[in-house]
Amino acid sequence: MTLPLQALPTPRPEFEDPAVLAREVIDRLTYRVGKDPKVAKPHDWLQATVLVTRDRAIEYWMNATRQTYLEGGKRVYYLSLEFLIGRLMRDALSNLGLLDSMRSALKLLDVDFDEIAELEADAALGNGGLGRLAACFMESMATVGIPAYGYGIRYRHGLFRQEIIDGWQAEMPETWLEHGNPWEFDRREAAYTIGFGGRVEYNDANGKTEHYTWHPQERVTATAYDTPVVGWRGARVNTLRLWKADPIDPIRLDAFNAGDHIGSLTESNRADALTRVLYPADASPAGQELRLRQEYFFSSASLQDILRRHLQQYGLFDNLPEKVAIQLNDTHPAVCVAELMRLLMDVHEIEFEDAWKLTVGTIGYTNHTLLPEALESWPVPLFERLLPRHMQIIYEINARLLKTARHDHEMSDDEIRSISLIDESGERRVRMGNLAFVGAHAVNGVAAMHSELLKVTVFKDLHRIYPDRINNKTNGITPRRWLFQCNPGLTQLITDTIGPVFLDDIERLRDLEPYATDAGFQDAFARVKRKNKDALTDMVRDRIGLRIDPNALFDIQVKRIHEYKRQLLNIVETVALYDQIRTHPERNWVPRVKIFAGKAAPTYHNAKLIIKLANDVARVVNSNPIVRSVLKVVFLPNYNVSMAEMLVPAADLSEQISTAGMEASGTGNMKFALNGALTIGTLDGANVEIREAVGPENIVIFGLTDAEVEERRQNGHDPRKVIEGSPELSQALSAIAGGVFSPDDPGRYAELVGGLYDHDWFMVASDFDSYTAAQRRVDALWSDPSVWWEKAILNTARMGWFSSDRTIRQYATDIWGIAPRPD
């Protein structure tokens, strides 16, 4: 029976009473955890507290779900291979307005909230910015009142746990689910069959409608696990639905009893592999197949779930685009275009033209890269063997596309080759970026510069056919996680200074601007930063046994390790600085702590070598008695959300130094600036818009522009000449290549350095002198505290626009056609 709205549960006044919360914690500890308070361990208290928090969220969750159903409103479905949600307890309590109350409740029970909060597992559901963006978006959709589901994979191990052994990255299994996940609900009724391989059967028995039936050779079951996502002040609670793969037949008992104890489990093992690891290495054919299987697995399960829900509520698909918005986060779920067509045509018997209108009208595609090699593609033989029906559909879509391009737009052969869904320049491959583009009604970049570059680079010719399809939605971050929770000292200072209104309207941070030159406020701001730096200092000592000086400038670069992000540029400048300090010890050097963190893909040789170099440089620099008082180098292993929550508030300088034209947006740049760090960076990604927001005098920009980078690549440049013309760069590279930092293996970095001399694709040499000069400008600013803190405060005051609430509102009105809750 459907309940009327007035009969739905509503939060009770005693929700915030610490005494009531304390009793509920004891209740969960006793009856759900099975422990007496006298013998309960910290992890028992954690589980009990999570269960109380989750139960509080459930009432809002049920309200939101039922209200959406009764109102018949449009839903958003956000498909992403990553959701880097981090720890959830503090997040949920804060958004429910219960953080202080729960802290007080646990104090009544002699339990330290912060101690047990540190024990919560950091969900290994993502890698970097892509996954964290998806998590911010889910929270913001709940905050601004948009009914939404997030769809992804419930990875058992996620990417990997990074350990540093003798300076090298070592990949270990991440066991975050080892003791279960108290936040999730097993939805066994939401289970769908996913097929692979097999054959396609054609049938036109009625003489009118073509009909195809796919007979997969292999099948697995996708089972849903739901996690509530709480919006600010409980405005709404949405659902993150993650899929786990299960075999249809867990064990062939006849084979097992006959002695085949391994072969009898083959089906179970293949299913288990689908949801075990994020981004399996795809250098081998087997790795490529597993990755494609993963992407199709979660895409098909999600679409089946979406269509089942829609059909249950409306009974037809004619209104699908009016009631459903599907957003593809990058190319990983791009197979949704073909799968939605298959489901509509083969399962629900809708004609191709009508199915195509429904598909395009429903799907939106977010692009995250300008790198052609990062736009996924799959070998045609692999795709056809694994998904034979989908290959037929892609060929049909492509045929219609190319005919339109040839006849309606008079495109040349080269332009035809550019837009084709099949790349025939070498091994024939299915282009997933092109598929996502043609199968979506809106294609958005994630920063203004990125969106404009999409039109003239990777999607130039498709943009000619669909000139109104590309739009911009600059990324954002949720201020609840990245200010209120990770930096409570600064949040309280701002509240005491301008009042609490910014908590609900983050752009009111601009009310801080008049205080930027106020000496008293500067001192208070600096004290907050120092407290955060003290906490990070303790963490560094505990994690890697290194003492750093919190009075020093904390210069932080934390992100995925990739050559275009140019950690190498930072390290080479560190070596040059090391040389200068040793050569001129009499100078008044600004004390610095260079902090690096991030993971390299397991098969990315140069990225792993850069991690080793950072650790080798750290070992030498940190042991030098002349230098270590003014320069320290730190590489923190296993960077994740919880670590970022300590690094971001403690940073003085944020390194955003990618090669111009290669970073789509970035969100780390936003987090650091919001917390009062100055940015040193190139005019790349969202740095361009941050510069506009905070003012060019409050950010340190250096290096080539994207146009200059492209010009050098097109017309040729001589990196050897550049290196030889820069004494500091030449000396630093000679030291690295010559084994100064790798005496155990003097040739370790010869090839890495040689690449800079030979081609320097990422313009490390070309930007080095400009970067070094920019770092010395940073030194000058740091040496004048009143100037530094004025700029830091203005960064915080002017970053409100970069809230993911603003981003989501733009998606809602411009792409999804749904009205968010008014501000």
From TrEMBL:
Main location: cytoplasm
Co-factor requirement: pyridoxal 5'-phosphate
Catalytic activity: [(1->4)-alpha-D-glucosyl](n) + phosphate = [(1->4)-alpha-D-glucosyl](n-1) + alpha-D-glucose 1-phosphate
CDD domains: GT35_Glycogen_Phosphorylase
Biological processes annotated in GO: glycogen catabolic process
A single Gene Ontology CC term: cytoplasm
EC number: 2.4.1.1
Protein's cellular compartments: Cytoplasm
Residue positions where N6-(pyridoxal phosphate)lysine is found in the record: 671
Molecular function as annotated in GO: glycogen phosphorylase activity; pyridoxal phosphate binding
Keywords: Allosteric enzyme, Carbohydrate metabolism, Cytoplasm, Glycosyltransferase, Pyridoxal phosphate, Transferase
Top-rank lineage group of the source organism: Bacteria
Signal peptide span: none
Main function: Phosphorylase is an important allosteric enzyme in carbohydrate metabolism. Enzymes from different sources differ in their regulatory mechanisms and in their natural substrates. However, all known phosphorylases share catalytic and structural properties.
Family statement drawn from the similarity comment of this UniProt entry: Belongs to the glycogen phosphorylase family.
Name by which UniProt lists this protein: Alpha-1,4 glucan phosphorylase
Source taxonomy: Bacteria, Pseudomonadati, Pseudomonadota, Alphaproteobacteria, Rhodobacterales
